[in-house]
Design goal:
This protein has one helix spanning 76-84; strands spanning 2-22, 33-54, 63-67, 90-97, 111-117. It is mainly beta. The strands form two sheets. Strands 1-2-3 form a three-stranded antiparallel β-sheet, covered by helices on one side. Strands 4-5 form a two-stranded antiparallel sheet. Strand 2 (33-54) and strand 3 (63-67) form a beta hairpin. The protein is flat and about 70 Å long.
């Protein structure tokens, strides 16, 4: 396995939106009431290391692996933003095809297959 490594350093800006919510349980309760959105932005110096791992010298199946060490003391907003984000599902080699029942009442969109890539997360508690 061969590997190329690159280090990138610079300012990392994190921007996320928080909403305040209040619950007033009563007989006329119709759900939570959301307050105005508050945009929070924080910038810190960060370094990331990108490593390209190429199995058996083939560039066709190369993977990039990125890593960084960022102290929770130095950037406490980062853990909050990353852990509260709803990450979309990533599918490798996705293949979609249109079903033959397009236009009928039971149409549910294209049928897709592929390998779902799961997010690996280490708890930092």
């Amino acid at each position: 396995m061969t590997a190329d490594t690159y280090r990138v350093s610079g300012d990392l800006t994190l921007t996320y939106v928080q909403r305040s919510v209040s619950y007033d349980p009563s007989e006329s309760y119709s759900g939570p009431t959301y307050g105005p959105a508050i945009t929070i932005s924080q910038t810190q110096q960060a370094s990331f290391e990108f490593r390209r791992a190429t199995p058996s010298g083939s560039t066709a199946n190369a993977e990039w692996i990125a890593s960084s060490t960022i102290s929770a003391e130095d950037f406490p907003e980062l853990l909050t933003a990353v852990s509260s984000t709803v990450w979309p599902v990533f599918v490798a080699d996705e293949q979609c095809s249109m079903p033959s029942n397009v236009g009928s009442e039971d149409y549910s969109g294209p049928a897709c297959t592929g390998e779902s890539v799961t997010l690996r997360r280490q708890d930092l508690s």
